[in-house]
Amino acid sequence: MGKPTGFLELGREVPALLPIADRVKNNNEFVQNEVFGSKINDQASRCMDCGIPFCHNGCPIGNIIPEFNDAVYRDNWREAWDILSSTNNFPEFTGRICPAPCESACVLGINQDPITICNIEKTIAEKAYKNGYVKPKIPYKRTGKSIAIIGSGPAGLAAAEQLNSAGHTVTVYEREEKVGGLLRFGIPDFKLGMDVIDRKIAVMEAAGIKMVVNAHIGVDFNAVDLRKQFDVVLLTGGSTVPRDLPIPGRHLKGIHFALEFLAQNNRRANNMPLKTAEISAKDEHVLVIGGGDTGSDCVGTSNRQGAASILQIEIMPIPPKKRTENMPWPSYPMILKTTTSHEEGVERKWSILTKEFIGDENGNVKELIIADIEWLPAAQGERAQFNEIEGSERKILCTKAFLAMGFLYPDASGILAQLEIGLDDRGNVQTNHFQTNKKGIFAAGDMRTGQSLIVNCINEGREAALAIDIHLMGNTNLESKQGSLMLSN
Fold first, then answer.
1. What per-residue confidence (pLDDT) applies to 206?
2. Residues with pLDDT less than 50, the chain
3. pTM for the complete prediction?
4. Fold observed for domain 146-240+408-473
5. CA 364 from chain center: how many Å?
6. DSSP one-letter string for 143-198
7. CATH number of 244-405
């Protein structure tokens, strides 16, 4: 513990942001981390080195947070990087886009603002790249075993790096022209730039991992034929079927799934082919349906494209501003979240029922009929119900709508059908110790669990890699968050 009185002397402080008027002019990152200077050391000194570090448990990948905080306070960035990179394959990603369940579990957060763990993590990663600490994880020798990983999101890439470091020959297949999955085509550049992704991919390729792009396994390439070429196949294709809104008028032009909009904007911002008809929010009256992070990303993107107005609605009631007795520390609290995108300009409404889209004579959406609802107390073990408030039905202007209501499960056709992979009752890939019903075929990430956080996906990839290593070799030297070879189902 570098400074025992740090948490008593200093409050939480984070880097400044570029002014809203400046940052909405482009898709660049706007957190001024590089000018934060020695304040990051002061922030690390607030860590109390708790006897039981709940932050460590709150982090799905088990980052060793008090130890790297202490190293940052002592200005030992190499030590900090060694500690952080031992548990986290992608701190340059998580330091930018993780919702920080570790900070929610921080003991200091009981009665003060928690440690700025995410920003410290990001700073460690950037210092490591700048100072040359980031090296390819090249194995001492190869095992002769080959592994195909289908899908290049955080779960697939984490598994690839772990398995390659264990000496296996790893090939990652990606259906798009560049690897990264939702990291590249689902997260706006102003949160995670493609240059940050490319930088890490270059390190992985230098370690011997082969990346094959424009390879849509199960569609352009037969999955059964691919299976014959490898000792193991790991499926990390994600949860790709979006939740739809089956109301009258859904067929009208101008209504899109959020990911269609976000992926196209990322392509446009990086001079990549759009692949689909142009979707633009410029001068439109934008409606975002869904109150989560993806909806927030649609807000930020719409602001950058010059929307005339933006309204974000959510069927659930407005969350509380602080923890309630039903969400005690150190659990992750479902409280009201106001993002930087919200601060850039949006109207937000909760407890809103969407009823019908109305179109113009050309088949374009122009309005949406909505109504206010009242949520009723839920009985024990039952789902909450709601009543529509009488007389609240009305029309609102809507010339562009983005559905940001999450994802349901992976696409059951294509690769899953060709390989005859078993699914659970939620439509996700069913596994036992990450292995599917087919021997030698494993699954990890959102394809296995349903949609989740980036840190959960990284953990999925790491744990799946450990299970595969044991399957191939009978033992493993790879680390597990659980600290044993007991794997989850």
1. 98
2. 483-489
3. 0.95
4. FAD/NAD(P)-binding domain (3.50.50)
5. 32
6. -S-EEEEE--SHHHHHHHHHHHHTT-EEEEE-SSSSS-THHHHTS-TTTS-HHHHH
7. 3.50.50.60
